[in-house]
Design goal:
The complex is a heterodimer of chains A (390) and B (466).
Chain A (H helix, E strand, L loop, with lengths): L20 E7 L9 E2 L4 H6 L10 E3 L5 E3 L3 H8 L3 E8 L7 H10 L10 H9 L9 E4 L15 E3 L17 H11 L11 H23 L11 H14 L6 E6 L8 H26 L5 E7 L18 E6 L6 E3 L19 E2 H12 L5 H4 L12
Parallel strand pairs in A: 1-8, 1-9, 5-11, 5-12, 6-7, 6-8
Antiparallel strand pairs in A: 2-4, 3-4, 5-10, 9-10
Chain B lengths: L5 H17 L5 H10 L1 H9 L9 H7 L9 H14 L3 H13 L10 H14 L4 H9 L2 H6 L13 H11 L12 H10 L3 E3 L15 E3 L9 E3 L2 E3 L3 H9 L2 H15 L6 H13 L4 H10 L1 H4 L11 H12 L12 H7 L22 H14 L6 H13 L2 E2 L1 H11 L7 H13 L4 E2 L5 H14 L7
Antiparallel strand pairs in B: 1-2, 3-4, 5-6
Helix pairs in contact in B: 1-2, 3-15, 5-7, 5-17, 6-7, 7-8, 8-12, 10-11, 13-14, 14-15, 17-18, 17-19, 19-23, 20-21, 21-22, 21-23
Classes of the chains: A alpha/beta (390), B mainly alpha (466).
């Protein structure tokens, strides 16, 4: 399962065959696990959720204990195709209930020490050690998530694909070539006294190299799937589909949706968010089939934490433990882990206890799907979960 | 050719540095005017914006009609962007932006433009005064109460959100391990003390426009039992929590650290921050006193911290806009300035979460850098803008014939006495050489060459620093 060492560049999977796409979707703000995967036969759930408990038509049963939130019907269809693994009770030891800190923990794969190095930044480095491909990792959205931050790794961060590039809007820029030529010389990473920093120089280098590649992607894309204009996560996933089909050697795709911080008005807001996410994800997988990319793609969906077991009247406060989804034709569909026990003795300060370490999920994706050695990336050896048919 | 003594050029560079940090940068002409007043007098002027006349709100209201009693955050941001792009009291706006990032309220949840503008005004009014007073005001701010769900915090069911963020993000802070100088029990106690603090219910902001939000204290819904908070026991209400928080060294340290990060350097200097923590405590937590100490310190004036802070998107957008100076009155185009900070990762009045923005190098990912270069290079190309005309005048006034080094230096000076690393400068000089040397004021391409050099300068990594 270990990586086969030094592949020369990142344009091919290390097994020498097709490249592999990892698509990560972050649910920002703390997705309420209990109202996502609903334990609809558990009396304790309704005891703790007098106002927020979902029942009857608000639940789509999976088995005789657990069901999806009714605003996740597309997820149920993907689940029924056997291509979705739901990891229940995922988390990490000594949970932190700060959005900030907990998101960092998921981003850096480090629950006990603070780090600014993102796990996917390290993956990008492992896939493309020399940084030869500036679009090995592409983020769709504003600002770079810490998951993708790593010294020396350039990550393209894209709002709209078709207008991406330098001086593209400069009126009558007959001098564009001269400008680009000099700018390209300035953004040569080299050791200096820290001004401008190496990181800024490398960012500039990556930006210049990546821009021209990415701007071409929508033109190469031929798809029939219609992603709704008013669903931001659908638009981001459309961008992902366009880049996968352009064959640029991109392997890591990142995007986020939210805010899942449902302290109030949860029944309305949480439902709307899941309408958007599940619609977008189903369309994306139909598109991947159409593009012939589905077999080489997996999608990982996570949130920084779940929420308190008991509701607070109209919402739920920050909790710990949650669920994550791994989706794709190569995934062995089903429910994994145990649904956390809601009894008072089993709770951790009013929250559920996790039973699967999130890094087991990372390690499984890295080893079984991406064929990488997970140990240097996660700083330790984690269990392999039997989630993928390889 | 004008020559300046070393002393003069040192003073010019220092004044430019002060105005980039305490404001959004200044044009070369403005720097000259400030120099006549002297450094310390300028520091005092910046620190006391209330001594200068008020901003012309009627003018803004006339042109940004949708910003009057703004319905959503998106209707409100043109007002604030205009202030940042034009205010002659730049520190008033810069400190408001500082607190907006630190005590972030986001339009994604509080989509109420009128209330957003009220918050920014609160930060202008109290942002340079005593921290305790600011924190009391913020805790009574109806927008904040709504944003952090305190209207749903009841005597029998406290909602912890405000109590937690008050301690973690607004005052005492957590270290890099997520640990604070307070316990989970203190969070819960703070939440209990703030039960009954809420915003009054107002009609929804549609059809008739938004209604101003109002704070309301409901004594019946307040937990008035005895509480122990940070080791002190009493029948504490929210004011007491704020008072006790402000007695803590951790709070002084937290504010000093954040002010240092924002105004001085992305790399914290622990000795300097300890010193500022003392200043904060010795001055009753007055922010103005800490900033006075910062701006007048040898550390702040030293080369070691100059150009060592990454410009935030606001620094870049409003700094460049001030330099180019193309708006005499608010107009349609100026209403879109806030869109550019959004594209660069800073959505004004809608920070990504209650923790505000991650500052420093994280601002500049490759997508954001492309936005920065495209925005700034387009702006400095505007021949019809007054500021660009003045930049060109400055280059022309330097001499009729300039060798390539002199030409690059004249452009950098004309753009507000900015600087670049020796390596960057040498590449800019090479670029000037492409078109032959010397640069001649009478040559037919003199103007285009200067504009192209401006475009290049704002494209450099060096321009990303302030």
């Amino acid at each position: 399962m270990a990586s086969n060492g030094s592949t020369s560049n990142g344009t091919n999977g290390s097994n020498g065959s097709k490249r592999k796409n990892l698509v990560v979707v972050q649910l920002s703000g703390g997705n309420d696990y209990l109202n996502t995967m609903v334990p609809y036969q558990d009396g304790l759930y309704y005891d703790y959720r007098p106002n927020m408990g979902l029942k009857g038509d608000d639940v789509i049963p999976i088995d005789d204990r657990i069901g999806f939130n009714s605003h996740m019907a597309p997820f149920k269809r993907l689940y029924d195709k056997g291509m979705m693994a739901v990891m229940m009770g995922i988390g990490y030891p000594e949970p932190n209930r700060s959005h900030f800190r907990s998101m960092d923990i998921w981003h850096t794969a480090e629950p006990s020490v603070s780090s600014s190095e993102g796990w996917l930044g390290k993956v990008t480095k492992a896939l493309d050690p020399e940084g030869t491909n500036p679009v090995t990792a592409v983020n769709f959205g504003r600002g770079l998530p810490r998951a993708l931050a790593y010294p020396g790794v350039s990550v393209a961060s894209v709002g709209a694909l078709d207008s991406y590039g330098l001086y593209t809007g400069l009126a009558g820029a007959g001098n564009r070539d001269a400008l680009l030529d000099t700018v390209s010389r300035i953004y040569q990473p080299m050791s200096a006294d820290g001004f401008p920093s190496q990181r800024i120089l490398e960012t500039g280098r990556g930006a210049l190299d990546g821009a021209d590649l990415l701007r071409e992607a929508p033109g190469k894309y031929k798809g029939t799937i219609e992603y709704p204009e008013d669903n931001p996560i659908a638009q981001s996933l459309k961008g992902v589909a366009q880049v996968t089909s352009a064959n640029l050697g991109t392997k890591i795709y990142y995007t986020a949706h939210g805010p899942f911080d449902t302290h109030t008005n949860e029944l309305i807001n949480h439902a709307l968010l899941w309408d958007q996410v599940s619609e977008a994800v189903e369309l994306f997988w139909a598109d991947m089939e159409e593009q012939g990319e589905a077999d080489d793609t997996v999608m990982w969906i996570f949130s920084e934490f779940g929420r308190r077991v008991a509701d607070n009247g109209t919402g739920t406060d920050h909790g710990s433990g949650g669920c994550a989804f791994l989706i794709g034709p190569s995934v062995k569909g089903g429910l994994y882990g145990e649904y956390p026990d809601l009894s008072p003795d089993a709770q951790l300060e009013g929250d559920i206890q996790y039973n699967t370490d999130y890094r087991d999920g990372y390690a499984t994706i890295l080893e079984s799907f991406m064929d990488l050695d997970s140990e240097p990336i996660l700083n330790s050896k984690f269990s392999q979960l039997d989630l993928l048919a390889v | 050719m004008t020559t300046v003594s070393n002393r003069q050029s040192t003073d010019i560079a220092l004044m430019a540095h002060l105005l980039r940090r305490a404001g959004f940068g200044a044009t070369r002409d403005q720097i000259d005017k400030y120099l006549e007043k002297g450094y310390e007098a300028v520091v005092e002027e910046l620190l006391n914006p209330d001594r200068l006349p008020m901003a012309d709100e009627d003018l803004m209201d006339r042109y940004f009609i949708a910003s009057v009693e703004a319905r959503s955050a998106g209707h409100a941001d043109p007002q604030w962007a205009w202030r940042m792009a034009t205010s002659y009291k730049p520190l008033e706006e810069k400190i408001a932006l500082f607190w907006h990032g630190l005590m972030a309220v986001g339009g994604v949840k509080l989509d109420h433009g009128l209330e957003m503008l009220t918050e920014i005004e609160l930060f202008r009014e109290f942002g340079l005064g005593r921290f305790q007073e600011l924190l009391q005001e913020v805790s009574r701010n109806p927008g904040m109460m709504f944003w952090l769900d305190n209207q749903n915090s009841h005597k029998d069911a406290p909602n912890e959100n405000y109590g937690r963020e008050l301690l973690e993000l607004f005052s005492m802070g957590i270290d890099e391990m997520g640990e604070g100088a307070y316990s989970e029990d203190d969070v819960k106690t703070a939440a209990r003390a703030f039960t009954g603090w809420a915003s009054k219910v107002t009609p929804p902001p549609f059809f008739l426009g938004p209604f101003p939000m109002e704070f309301r204290f409901d004594a019946d819904d307040h937990d008035d039992s005895e509480k122990t908070f940070l080791g002190q026991t009493g029948n504490w209400n929210g004011e007491d929590i704020v008072r006790i928080i402000c007695e803590q060294r951790a709070t002084a340290h937290f504010v000093a650290l954040r002010l240092y990060d924002y105004f001085v350097s992305d790399t914290p200097d622990s000795a300097e921050i300890e010193r500022l923590t003392d200043v904060f405590q010795a001055n009753n937590g007055e922010v103005r006193a800490v900033l006075r100490e910062i701006f007048n310190s040898d550390h702040f004036k030293s080369e070691a911290v100059r150009f060592r802070k990454i410009k935030s998107p606001s620094d870049l957008v409003f700094g460049t806009t001030r330099l180019v100076d193309r708006f005499e009155i608010p107009e349609l185009d100026s209403g879109t300035l806030a869109n550019y900070t959004l594209f660069m990762g800073q959505h004004l009045m809608n920070p990504p979460s209650v923790e505000g923005w991650h500052e420093g190098e994280e601002w500049v990912d490759s997508g954001a850098l492309i936005e920065r270069i495209n925005f700034a290079s387009t702006e400095v190309s505007r021949l019809d803008a007054r500021g660009v005309q003045r930049m060109l005048d400055r280059v022309r006034e330097t001499g009729d014939e300039l060798n390539s080094e002199q030409f690059v230096d004249a452009c950098l000076d004309g753009m507000g006495a900015i600087d670049a690393s020796p390596r960057t400068k040498s590449i800019l000089v090479d670029h000037a050489e492409r078109y032959g040397t010397p640069w001649e004021v009478e040559a037919p391409d003199s103007l285009e060459r200067a504009i192209e050099m401006f475009q290049l300068i704002v494209s450099t990594p060096d321009y990303q620093y302030c």
